[in-house]
C-alpha cells in the first residue's frame, strides 16, 4: 500500500496563513485498511477451518461483517485547500470541491463530511483526528466542566478563515458531557471484559 508524503501546510506570503491543511490521521486510516483486509481474509479462513460452528460464523458474517466494512470504507485521509479536499479512501486519490459538501460535522475524535452528488453508500467521509496521549484525553474528559464547549480543532479554525463564504453547514457533534459519558462507558466495558476474561481463565485452570 503506498505511503506518499502528505503535502505540508503551505504559507501564504500575503497574510502568512496556511493555504492548505491536513485532514484526517494517516495512522488511523492505515489501521482501518489493515483491519478491513483482516476481516475479509479471516472470515472465510475461519469458516473453512472451523467445521463445528460454520452456521454461527455464517450468521455473524452475514449480519455484522457488511456494516463493519461499510463503516471502514468511510475512513479517509488527505488535505484541504481553498478549492476543496483531496482525499483517499484506499490508494487512489479523489477530489471533492467545497460546493459538493452538504454538511461538515466535527468533534475532537473526527470530522464527518456529508457529500452531494454521490451514491448513498459513498456519501460519507470519516476523517479520524490525530489522538492525544490517552492520559491527556482521560484527564481532559474527566476534569473539563460539564456543558462547556469543546475546543475547535485546528482544521475547523483554518476552514473558517480560508473558505468564506462556505456553501455548507458546519455542526459540532458532542459536548463535554457526552465525552465524559462515553469515557465512563469505555471504562465500564474494559472493566467488564477484564472481569469475564479473569473468570474464564480461572475456570479453565
Describe this structure in words.
- Strand 5 (101-106) and strand 6 (110-115) form a beta hairpin.
- The chain has helices at residues 26-49, 54-73, 134-143, 154-162, 176-204; strands at 21-23, 77-80, 84-88, 93-97, 101-106, 110-115, 124-128, 169-172.
- The strands form two sheets. A four-stranded antiparallel beta sheet has the order 1-2-3-4, with no helix packed on it. Strands 7-6-5-8 form a four-stranded mixed beta sheet, with no helix packed on it.
- It is of the alpha+beta class.
- Mean pLDDT is 75; it is low at 1-5.
- The protein is 45% helix and 19% strand.
- It is built from five helices and eight strands.
Quick gist of this model?
The chain is an alpha+beta fold and 205 residues long. Helix content is 45%, strand content 19%.
The shape is globular
Uncertain residue segments = 1-5
Largest beta-sheet details: 4 strands, antiparallel
- Treating each run of at least 4 consecutive H or I residues as one helix, how many helices? 5
What is the SS-derived class?
A: alpha+beta
Beta-strand content estimate: 15-25%
User: If strands are numbered along the chain, what order do they take across the biggest sheet?
Assistant: 1-2-3-4
Radius of gyration: 21 Å
Q: What is the N-to-C order of secondary-structure elements (H for helix, E for strand)?
A: EHHEEEEEEHHEH
Average pLDDT score: 75
Helix proportion: 40-55%
Number of strands: 8
Termini separation comes to: 43 Å
Amino acid at each position: 500500500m503506498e505511503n506518499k508524503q502528505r503535502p505540508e501546510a503551505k504559507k501564504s506570503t500575503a497574510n502568512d496563513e496556511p493555504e492548505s491543511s491536513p485532514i484526517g490521521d494517516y495512522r488511523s486510516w492505515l489501521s482501518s485498511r489493515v483491519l478491513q483486509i483482516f476481516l475479509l481474509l479471516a472470515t472465510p479462513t475461519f469458516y473453512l477451518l472451523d467445521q463445528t460452528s460454520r452456521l454461527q460464523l455464517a450468521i455473524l458474517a452475514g449480519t455484522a461483517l457488511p456494516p463493519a466494512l461499510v463503516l471502514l470504507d468511510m475512513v479517509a485521509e488527505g488535505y484541504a485547500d481553498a478549492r476543496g479536499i483531496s482525499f483517499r479512501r484506499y490508494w487512489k486519490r479523489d477530489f471533492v470541491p467545497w460546493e459538493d459538501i452538504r454538511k461538515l460535522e466535527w468533534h475532537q475524535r473526527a470530522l464527518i463530511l456529508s457529500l452531494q452528488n454521490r451514491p448513498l453508500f459513498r456519501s460519507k467521509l470519516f476523517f479520524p483526528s490525530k489522538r492525544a496521549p490517552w492520559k491527556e484525553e482521560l484527564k481532559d474528559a474527566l476534569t473539563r466542566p460539564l456543558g462547556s464547549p469543546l475546543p475547535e480543532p485546528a482544521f475547523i479554525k483554518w476552514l473558517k478563515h480560508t473558505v468564506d463564504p462556505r456553501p455548507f453547514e458546519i455542526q459540532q457533534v458532542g459536548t463535554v458531557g457526552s465525552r465524559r459519558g462515553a469515557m465512563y462507558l469505555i471504562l465500564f466495558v474494559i472493566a467488564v471484559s477484564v472481569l469475564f476474561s479473569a473468570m474464564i481463565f480461572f475456570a479453565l485452570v
